[in-house]
Amino acid sequence: MNLLPLPAFSDNYIWMLHNAHQAIVIDPGDAHPVLQALDRLGLQLQAILVTHHHADHVGGVEALHLATGASVYGPAREAMPHGTTPVQQGDQIQALGTPFTVLDVPGHTVGHVAYYGAPAQGAPWLFCGDTLFSGGCGRLFEGTPAQMLASLDALAALPDDTQVCCAHEYTLSNLKFARAVEPDNTALLHYQGVCEALRAKQQPTLPSHIGLERNINPFLRTRVAQVAAAAQAHANTPLNPQDAVAVLAALREWKNQF
Ligand SMILES: [Zn+2]
Ligand SMILES: [Zn+2]
C-alpha cells in the first residue's frame, strides 16, 4: 500500500492511500490535486473519508464524488455533503481490502471523527484531521477541553507504530511551542532538528507516529509534572496541576497567544 500526502491550499495535506489500482482519500478540501494524482498514477477512487465539516476538508467532496462515483463517509453528527454515509464511534468501513475503524474525537468540532486503518501487514494508519497534529492539537472551536482530552487520550492509546496522518503541516510552529513548555525534553529537541531539515528540503514532516507523539507532544503529556508546571505558570487563573483537563485548557490558551 502506498501513502501520499497531496499538498493543498497553503498548509493542508489530502492523504491518499492506494494499492496501484484503487485509492481512497481523506479530507479532500480541493478536488484538483486528487484528480491530478488519480490521473497521473492511473488510479480509480474507491472511497472518500471525511473527518469534520470545515471547508478545507470537504470542499472537493462533491466534485470528486460526481467525477468518480466514489463512496463518501463522514461524521454522523455534522452537516455533510449530500450522499454521505454517516459514521460514528465503532463503525467499520472496508476499503482497499482493509478495515478502517471510526473513532469519535470531539473537541476541534463537536462531531469530529478519526479513521484508524489496520492492514494485515505493516504499521496502522490514523487519519485524525484537525484533532491531533504532530507536536500539537487542533483549536477548540466547538468542543470543550474535557472532550479534547478524552479524544487525545483515545488516540494516544493506539499502538506506538501507528502512522499519524494529520491534515495540516503545522509541525515546526507546534514544536517551537512544545520547546517553550518542555525546554529539557531531549527527544523533542532531536525531533525539532529532524523536522527543520525536512522542511528546509520542502518535504512533509508527516506522517508522525503515536509512540513519538507521546514523548514530544505537550497535549498528550498533560499528566507529566514539567508540562503541568509550565501550564500552571502561564495560566490566567490558578490551576491544580493534577487536573489534566485544566492543564490542557491552559496549554491551549497559551498556544493560542504564542
Ligand atoms: Zn478544522
Ligand atoms: Zn483544517
What average pLDDT do the residues reach? 97
Give the overall form: globular
Small-molecule binders here are: zinc ion
Structural class of the secondary structure composition?
alpha/beta
State the end-to-end distance. Answer: 39 Å
Estimate the helix proportion, in percent. 25-40%
Beta-strand residue fraction? 15-25%
Describe the protein in words.
The chain starts with a strand and ends with a helix. It is globular. Helix content is 36%, strand content 25%. The protein is of the alpha/beta class. The protein has helices at 31-41, 55-58, 61-68, 145-156, 171-181, 186-200, 210-216, 225-234, 244-257; strands at 2-8, 12-18, 22-26, 44-49, 71-75, 85-87, 92-95, 98-104, 113-117, 125-129, 132-133, 136-137, 163-166, 208-209. Helix 4 crosses helix 9 (244-257), helix 5 (171-181) runs antiparallel to helix 6 and helix 8 (225-234) crosses helix 9 (244-257). Strand 11 (132-133) and strand 12 form a beta hairpin. The chain has a 6-stranded mixed beta sheet with strand order 1-2-3-4-5-6. A 6-stranded mixed beta sheet has the order 7-8-9-10-13-14. The protein contains 9 helices and 14 strands. The site of one zinc ion (ZN) has 6 residues, from helix 2. One zinc ion is lined by residues 52, 54, 108, 130.
